[in-house]
Every structure is written in structure tokens, then in C-alpha cells.
């Protein structure tokens, strides 16, 4: 076989081999890059999911705290009014979250329909009392508010409301407010759940 032909064949084989080797190397490199990109995307997706979970947990905790605060403030303020001698100076509207309907809706996954109804009922009572306070001249009719403030306490404690009035409003804790034999079982379960939602958030923060 002529030398030029052999040289041409060798050159062709070298070119084909080089191209094949280059293609294989490119495939290996691209495959590794693709795997790295997929792993990075999985890490980013996991971090995003963890962030969204943490954000939702904090939002739920904030909502639960807001509702707890509204309930406790209403009870404490009612006890303080009924216990004080100078009632005229202790007539105030209950400060509440104006967007409580939205806040309650965020808790739909954690409470059943009956429990959600109880929460709405309590807020409805608070708004009713607030409206009556705003409409009446309490400087001359402070005694007329006794029944209004009693209604708030009775909503949670029923016929046991008189036992709650014996508590020291300046030293009683949240736990004492809900973990007693006087509170209605339905509201006790609700307030305990609200408290647990906040504790769950703290546990996740520490992980």
C-alpha cells in the first residue's frame, strides 16, 4: 500500500479518534455540570421550602399570640373593672386586632369548625361591648357597664365567673387563666391550642 495512502488513513483515524475523545470528554464534563446544577437546584429548593415553612410557622405563632392577647386583655380588663371601686376611671374599650377575621382564617388547619365558631363568638362579644361603650355616656352611667364586663367573663367561665373575680388580676399568669376548673372546656382547649402553636414555633427556631 502506498505510503501516502497509509498516511491519509492514519490521519483520518487520528481525526476520528480525536473527535470521539473530544466528544466523550465533552459529554463527561457536561454530564458532571448537569449533575452539579441539579444538586444545587435541589439544595436551593430545600432551603426555599424550609424558609417558607419557617415563615408560615412564625406567621401562625404571631396570629395565635394576637388572639391570645385579645382574649386575655378582655378578661383582665373586665376583672379589673368589676373589682375596682372607682369604676368610672376603668371603663375602656377592648383593644383588638381589627383584622381578626383574616387572622382566624389562617388557623383553619389547626382548629375545627366548632372551635373557630367559639373564637368568632368571643370577638363578636368584644365588638358588641366596645360599641356600647362608645355609644353610652359612661361618666354618668358607669354601673350600666357591669353587665357588659360580666358578659365577657361569663363567655369563658360561665356560672363560675364569680370564682374568677377572686383572682388577683395583677399577678395571675396565662397558665392560671386557662388551667383551672372554672373555664369552659371548649375555650380551655382553644386557648391551650393557641399556646401550643407558639411553643411549636419556638421549638422549630431552636433546631
User: What would the average pLDDT be, to the nearest integer?
Assistant: 78
Please provide the ordered H/E string of secondary-structure elements. HHHHHHH
* Count of alpha and pi helical runs: 7
Helix content: over 70%
Write up this protein.
By secondary structure, the protein is an all-alpha fold. Helix content is 73%, strand content 0%. The protein has 7 helices and no strands. It has helices at residues 3-83, 100-105, 113-135, 146-157, 161-164, 174-178, 185-205. Helix 1 packs across helix 4, helix 1 runs antiparallel to helix 7 (185-205) and helix 3 (113-135) runs antiparallel to helix 4. The protein is elongated and about 105 Å long.
What's the short version?
The chain is mostly helical and 207 residues long. It is 73% helix and 0% strand. Helix 1 packs across helix 4 and helix 3 packs antiparallel against helix 4.
Amino acid at each position: 500500500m502506498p505510503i501516502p495512502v497509509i498516511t491519509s488513513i492514519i490521519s483520518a483515524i487520528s481525526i476520528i479518534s480525536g473527535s470521539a475523545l473530544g466528544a466523550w470528554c465533552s459529554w463527561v464534563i457536561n454530564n458532571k455540570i448537569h449533575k452539579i446544577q441539579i444538586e444545587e437546584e435541589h439544595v436551593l429548593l430545600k432551603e426555599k421550602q424550609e424558609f417558607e415553612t419557617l415563615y408560615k410557622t412564625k406567621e401562625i405563632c404571631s396570629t395565635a399570640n394576637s388572639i391570645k392577647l385579645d382574649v386575655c386583655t378582655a378578661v383582665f380588663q373586665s376583672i379589673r373593672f368589676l373589682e375596682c371601686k372607682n369604676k368610672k376611671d376603668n371603663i375602656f374599650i377592648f383593644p383588638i386586632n381589627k383584622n381578626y377575621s383574616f387572622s382566624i382564617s389562617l388557623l383553619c388547619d389547626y382548629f375545627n369548625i366548632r372551635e373557630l365558631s367559639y373564637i368568632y363568638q368571643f370577638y363578636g362579644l368584644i365588638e358588641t361591648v366596645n360599641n356600647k361603650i362608645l355609644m353610652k355616656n359612661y361618666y354618668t352611667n358607669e354601673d350600666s357597664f357591669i353587665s357588659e364586663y360580666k358578659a365577657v367573663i361569663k363567655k369563658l367561665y360561665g356560672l363560675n365567673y364569680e370564682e374568677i373575680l377572686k383572682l388577683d388580676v395583677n399577678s395571675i399568669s396565662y397558665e392560671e387563666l386557662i388551667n383551672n376548673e372554672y373555664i369552659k372546656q371548649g375555650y380551655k382547649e382553644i386557648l391551650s391550642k393557641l399556646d401550643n402553636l407558639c411553643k411549636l414555633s419556638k421549638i422549630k427556631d431552636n433546631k
